[in-house]
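Forwarding the complex inputs:
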Amino acid sequence: MEKLHYQNYRIYAENICVDYNGKVALYDANLRLKPGQICGLVGMNGAGKTTFFNALTGFVNISKGKIRINGESLRSAQKDQTIAYVPQSEGIDSQFPVNVWDVVMMGRYGSMNVLRCPRESDVQAVKDAIERVDLTDFLSTPIGNLSGGQRKRTFLARAIAQRASILLLDEPFTGVDIRTEKLISELFIQFKNEGKTILLSTHDMIHVREVCDLVLLINKTVVAYGETSEVFTPENITSTFGGISPDVLFGPES
Amino acid sequence: MEFFLFSSINTFLTDPLTHDFMRKALFMSSLVAAVCGFLSSYLTLKGWALMGDAVSHSVMPGVVVAYALGLPFSLGAFIFGVGSVALIGFVKQKSRVKEDTVIGLVFTGFFALGIVLVSKIKSNIDLHSILFGSPLGISLSDVKQTVLISLLVVILLSVFRKDLMLYCFDPRHAKTVGINVHFLHYLLLTCLSLAAVVGLQTVGIILVVAMLITPGATAYLLTDQFDNMTIISVLSAIISSLIGIYCSFWFDLETGGSIVLAQTFIFLFAFLFAPRYGIFKFKKLFAGYKR
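Prediction (whole assembly, two chains):
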């Protein structure tokens, strides 16, 4: 009975707490996302956005609370490659000696044998993913030679190749060109129609209004959560950003 | 004249091979260089150069204790190598001291313990050969041990080649697709300790760290492809050890030092002339010339 309750949600996080050596980074955070929902994660630097992602990917252990992915534990979600993580640009070493093909192929590693030998289906999945992000001409380009936008698309392709049903994106719109920005927005609509669930963190308030159905405002804990139109109010934003008014953040017309 | 030149090159190359100890030294050093070179590309990319330094120094007391107890010295070295890393992790987590400080603190402590133990335990351990290596005086049992350990490391690194690459590149992604990141972490550490153990014999504790860092750094300047990087790293390490040993034979130089110096020169060459990342970017020069 209880399990059925979780199963309605792609992501079900209840009262999760994370602390690093006794320092609290996130406490009593809740999040419930269903298939096809796009949720924006908004907060200041150090508000716990990355920590939230870390908890959902299992990269840090939660000290309290409960996380269920499709009604199952995090471990089984990892085994099924349910969650894909698209890192922010600073999160990766852009000088690492790998090319676009190599990176996208990493999305398939979880379903390969122990030697990670690509099968025909893996090669096809990688090809398709690279085509969807429009990087077919850059297959063997080292990631160090790509622009910021192209690199972002490479990692997005990796998530596509992984065939994950949940995408976690850390600052997907930061440091990208307009073309990439448009392509990402279009992909989000496609993902939504495919029933994928997306959680993205962003600094850019305009993107939240444009692409997100839901917003999660956090400042060490959840400040507000709900439909973008209802939650994204000047009062809520002000309290999320520690008293700074939204006028300062994104212009007086807001 | 031409014949004379050819025959003297021939003598230069083949003369040392008539000596049994030279054949053994050439074989052993190439093997060790290959193992360290293989590992080196991972350490450079993971940013573990200092960790390599720490582990290679920390194995010292392990070697001494193992000798004193009559155990295989690789066992002692391995325990202390992994122990030092565990200790570094523990101290870092439980105190406010920064990581590089902790690393420096722990490994010098271990190293000092090793030196004190050598002076205290009455044995036939030659401090000089531990510190600087003695590839020309390796015993048969040492050869067997080194070959076994080297094979083990090469097999482990080959099997988990791609996982380790992913672990160095993006551990969080590795975790999300269900790859055991902790296992890979300790696998890399284990290989590092084992490589330090085999490297200890040819170039000694002090210079083994060069074998673990320099070939990877050289290869990093020469390619943008991970597999090529591994190959270049291994090849440059093997070539260096051959050059080093020949030079030490003909010019009567310290062997370990010569090997490392050869590696350093190859790095310097790459640093100056690497097509894309060298100081003089030859690719650009040629591109301009063609036009």
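Residues 133 and 204 of chain B are 4 Å apart (CA to CA).
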